[in-house]
Amino acid sequence: MPILINKQTKVLVQGITGNEGEKAAKAMLDYGTNVVGGVRPGKGGEEVLGKPVFNTVAEAVEQFPDITTTAIYVPPFAAKAAILEDIDAGIPQINTIIERVPIRDTAYCLASAREKNIQIIGPSSLGYISPGIGRIGVVGGPKAQADEIFTPGSIGIISRSGGMTNEVSWQVRKAGLGQSTAVHVGGDLLMGTTYADLLKLFEKDEQTKAVIIFGEHGGSYEFEIVDLIKNKEYTKPLAIYIGGKFASTLPEGMNIGHAGAIVERGKGAVEKSQALSEVGVMIADRYEDLVELIKPYS
Amino acid sequence: MNLYEFEGRELLEKHGIIIPVGEVVRRGDNIADAYRKLGLEEVVVKAQVLSGKRGKNNGIKFCSNLEEVEKAVDEIFNMSICGQYVASILLTEKINIESENYLSITYDTNKKQPVLVFSSEGGMDIEDVAEDKIYKKLLDIREKELAGNLELPAEFLETAKSLWNCFLSEDTRLVEINPLVKTTSGEIMALDAKVALDDDAFYRHNKEAQERAKEKGLDSGTITDWDLFESRTMLCRPATEREIAVQEIDKGEKYYQGTAGKYIELEGDIALILNGGGASIANMDALKKVGLEPANYTEYSGNPPREKVYALTKIVLSKPGIKGLWMCGVVANFTNVEETFKGIVDALDEIKPTYPIVVRRAGPHDKDGMKLLEDCAKRNNLNIKIFGKETSMSDTAQVLADMINI
């Protein structure tokens, strides 16, 4: 059993009539994911890819009360309203791909989601994929490419970067291994679902034997892993690459790469690697080395 | 965007926090005029930089007459503070202090909510203050008014409430007052201001936002226009022409359709056009590992239209003294490689570089994209090597190094 997705997953696509929304709906359907419909205010009653479009999330939920997941493709200024609609409707899992959501809006949504025990993956998350089971969002790209990169296996993958979710998964595949679930958590300062949240799920997942993480400088999420391991809440092998060594030469407070990748004292690539290494995490010097480190445990 | 003290303190004042009177001096300004305008004998001369410790680095000087002020200004304009360029100087009233405190609001990334931090040990680095002297209170971003259950000395409550209003309505990532002083006459005053704005909220803080407020019958004067802030960089120099030009690319209605507006000018001679926030960071490390030095940091990601990529490529390649170009990206999820390569080809057709070029890219429509690039290479006789996903990104850095070092 992979994490986050299973054969019962039923997906709603918000913004399905837009370019990116339709592309994502198609990507999911092509990969065998059950997309039940979409939302676009004012376009209720229309169809996209043969799936019904609703004016509101509430209307969609009325029709399909068993929607498990929503994937959101709306402009950043509409993000907060879209997410709050889902929270009101009680959809248990929200994947938001939207980049450049104001942090005040993200924090607002995260606070509201937590009260109702709703899981948000993102913002800025391209989604997640469990090879052979399904995917949320566009991780892997077109079906043919996704099939080249992803195959069922024992390696869990978590990445701050969408591109590196694919790239690392490809390295895993090239080495003759497969993936259990690959998750793009997004590069924002505030992450709805963190490394630690996912490691707890991978710990329970029998298919996953080891996990690879692509992390980066800035923020303190990597340090949460240290506590998780110390508390034995995660016990499987873990290999991590933390990007941004060169950033230590930049002035503090400067932002480079993702929104969350701020140059901060004590939170650089070197400090994070050191702290993780002390609790037994394998540290890759180059991202290409991740696979070599994890291979013996696959 | 991080604000200079003189900008940040105006935001604080807008929300009712008291600040000392002051005058901003820029390079070439008449200092005597500014000093006279201030009309005070005792003044503080403060370097304006975007981060770092000014006090410890002689960036703050106390002066008692014009001669001293002129000398201090001259000295400060000639220093770099923690590697940063001093853009301007703030002259302020010297305040008689009874106590120095610390007050800030920022986001706690573990709790994912704002946190208020207070300490009665202000004036020094908060990291150097003992844990038991620091009061932290998690706040709920959904509360418009700060709740009254803060365990702060009563005299600072009003300031804390004002700071919360400032934090929310100005869309900041950080507001910090250090020191927040009580003066000998009992006033509570902010003697410094560190403010980081959330760039992603720009559309709530510009002329259009003011217009929208007007249409709704709201007071548009309460909206600060971020576009009026001068361009800046945290590096030890003013923002370069190229850095300023690139910022324009992602502006306008379609700002969120792909990112192509990132450019930091660096000292080296290898031009970089990278893809993806995460991969680009990893590839900066990879480039350094093979002994090459970047001329710039640049990445585009998402699905930027051809025009954006064209504009970006032109600017990246306009830097003098380039010895090589590395265009390196991951196996893209949904970036249309053909569309983005069209923008690159448009620029290469114009510039026709003679230095070595290495490309590594894969993703949707990559075959068509690569074909465009190969045709472009043929018609312009480019010295180029093109790789797909079979070759890892780091390995192509070595290929470029070998081509340059022949």
UniProtKB/TrEMBL annotation, chain A:
It holds the Pfam family CoA_binding. The active site is at residue 258. SUPFAM superfamilies: NAD(P)-binding Rossmann-fold domains, Succinyl-CoA synthetase domains. GO terms for cellular component: succinate-CoA ligase complex (ADP-forming). GO terms for biological process: tricarboxylic acid cycle. Residues 4-101 form the CoA-binding domain. One of its GO terms (molecular function) is succinate-CoA ligase (ADP-forming) activity. InterPro entries: CoA-bd, CoA_lig_alpha, NAD(P)-bd_dom_sf, SUCC_ACL_C, Succinyl-CoA_synth-like. Keywords: Ligase, Nucleotide-binding. It comes from the Bacteria. This is Succinate--CoA ligase subunit alpha. It comes from Candidatus Magasanikbacteria bacterium CG_4_10_14_0_2_um_filter_33_14. The lineage of its organism: Bacteria, Candidatus Magasanikiibacteriota.
UniProtKB/TrEMBL annotation, chain B:
Gene3D superfamilies: ATP-grasp fold, A domain (3.30.1490.20), ATP-grasp fold, B domain (3.30.470.20), Succinyl-CoA synthetase domains (3.40.50.261). It comes from the Bacteria. Pfam families: ATP-grasp_2, Citrate_bind. Residues 9-210 form the ATP-grasp domain. Keywords: Acyltransferase, ATP-binding, Ligase, Nucleotide-binding, Transferase. GO terms for molecular function: ATP binding; ATP citrate synthase activity; metal ion binding; succinate-CoA ligase (ADP-forming) activity. One of its GO terms (biological process) is tricarboxylic acid cycle. It catalyses: oxaloacetate + acetyl-CoA + ADP + phosphate = citrate + ATP + CoA. This is ATP-grasp domain-containing protein. It comes from Candidatus Magasanikbacteria bacterium CG_4_10_14_0_2_um_filter_33_14.
